Task: structure prediction
Amino acid sequence: MNLEKIMNDLEKKHPGEKEYLQAVREVLESIEEVYNENPQFESANIIDRLVEPDRILTFKVCWVDDNGKVQVNLGYRIQFNNAIGPYKGGLRFHPSVNLSILKFLGFEQIFKNSLTTLPMGGAKGGSDFDPKGKSNAEIMRFCQSFMLELWKIIGPETDVPAGDIGVGGREIGFLYGMYRKLARENTGVLTGKGLNWGGSLVRPEATGFGAVYFAKEMLATKGETFKGKTVAISGFGNVAWGAVSKATELGAKVVTISGPDGYIYDPDGISGEKIDYMLELRSSNQDIVKPYSYEFPNAQFHQGKRPWEVKCDIALPCATQNELGKEDAATLIKNGVFCVAEGANMPSTPEAVELFIENKVLFAPGKAVNAGGVATSGLEMSQNAMKISWAKKEVDERLHHIMCSIHEACVKYGKDKDGYVNYVKGANVAGFLKVANAMLDQGVI
Ligand code: NDP
Ligand code: 2IT
Result:
């Protein structure tokens, strides 16, 4: 593999697609060795076929706001690769959404879904719609208009979207309602549905719970546990909420959450009613964490800052991409962090990842750590297909088992000679091999 040539060509073809190019480079660097050892991959030109999505749908979303003004947003669905199962991946509604961000997320999703052990291909979609400050009625009208286009290319056996930033249970409800009306069927076409209409128990908690289950396995390789540890978490959305709950349940003290406005440091730990308050904060549609410090006055709000300056044993970045840079990593290391597990997708910059690995910090990437979300989506699809629903305990046990399997796969392919586990390499190689071999089996299509 001539990595620099591949990257140069890709950059020429897709100039300025920073996040997409970043994600591709990371995967290619990790798989270079195994790729070169298996000439059948090169003969089938697997790399060129993997880095380009199968197709991209871009569409216009027109909707009317509460003042009667007509608004126009852009909508996307990127169907990246379906070698091992139907396209599967979330929808993101955030003003920063563009092709590069969705392509990076869709590309990552291929390997993440492969790691889950379930038959799911990779996809991502979304819109530059900003949910901040919107009324429920505005969100409903937007979701309905979005689905008017999207429904044409999705289906329970072809492409199954779910939530991501800005898309939670409420949005999935509005999207599902419109799909059901247009397609004249009740199927598992979306995951993250409400419990009364096909949703799975544990799906809301799954990404955060899964992230902590994964981190628990990482700690166990060093004979450690969450008990008594200080944990810094970023974000205050769905993933952060699940991670705070599970880490607290396992005896850790979570001292931070964050939003675009800054971070909260709560020296008493975020537990009990404070975890419920996180849900209130998120559903207020205000996109700020500052009100937490009015509600719980012992907590301090640090405007415009990131939580990585707080001394902690374990860091779980759960907000967004590239939210933890080289300096943040250096500060965390200086303060004694020994485990960093990514709840968000690609929250650490490549320089930060390098620093963690150089310093032999237990570090694992989003595609392994946060795969519990999409894995539980896969479990929701199975329940929908069988027209049954499993008890909470059953779903949680399956999720736990899947996270342990992903951890095992990372160790199998990522263990260095000195015993250090390079989870980035492990996750990328394990995820890649399954998809690449499936592509080989199925010929050039
Ligand atoms: P939510 O919309 O529920 O929450 C995202 C949170 O991150 C919001 O609080 C958001 O605020 C905040 N945020 C965004 N940018 C920043 C920033 N620069 N600094 C601090 N906070 C910020 O989304 P999720 O919790 O679902 O998603 C979080 C991450 O986890 C994303 O990377 C997503 O791709 C990933 N993920 C989600 C899964 C899921 O099942 N939901 C599964 C796997 C991964 P704001 O909206 O104001 O920017
Ligand atoms: O990034 C992700 O894995 C998600 N947003 C969840 C995708 C899904 O289909 O459940």
Summary: The chain has three domains: 1-52+423-445, 54-189, 206-369.
